[in-house]
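Give me structure tokens for this 227-residue protein.
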Amino acid sequence: MLDILELQATAVNPTLITIIYTVVLAFLLSTLIAFTYEKTFRGLSYSRNYLQALVLSSIVASTVMQAIGDSLASGLGMLGALAIIRFRTSLKEPRDIIFMFACLAAGIACGVNGYDIAVVGTLGFCIIAFVLHYSPFGQETYFDGMLRFNSEDDQAGKAKLDDVLKDHCKLFALITVRDMAQGKRLDYAYHVKLKRGKSKADLVHALNGIQSVSGVSLLLQETTIDI
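Here you go.
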């Protein structure tokens, strides 16, 4: 039976079983972090490529730390090699950066044989992320997607529009209004949250039923996961 305590000792030349154990543990911990990110995400869309990057970054970090070991020369050489790479992808949310750091930290801890630190740190991070998600620090309300359309600038059309939105949406918030056709038409953008039992097809059909409305476009979270 594999003795985890024996794996805790840092070795200049780790054995094959230690390398495999390190990579597998880094994969499992980073997968847990990615799962936590997905379940606590609130927004219109998340990137599946980002979730994959979270898992892969942890494995890369653990591999790099094992390759460096206790050698100062290897560390300087690795630093010089990595300095050649330029990462130009920008993360829009600070929360995304924190999750990326969490995966890197888990990989680094595994790479230096700090398995206890990696496990406890990752579990603590994920638990606190869920606690914050359901605490007052989390958003109490959020929207399912974005609705865009244009309509004639008349009171009768606006009244019908309000009735349709109230009938189909639990929540809706106006984001932008833009003039079209020299002020004769207005382009609207809403954040919407559909009522239970109401489908996006029902909302689009009801809006298209208003004579003054055209160009209806509804983007929901489940259809924009890969954005």
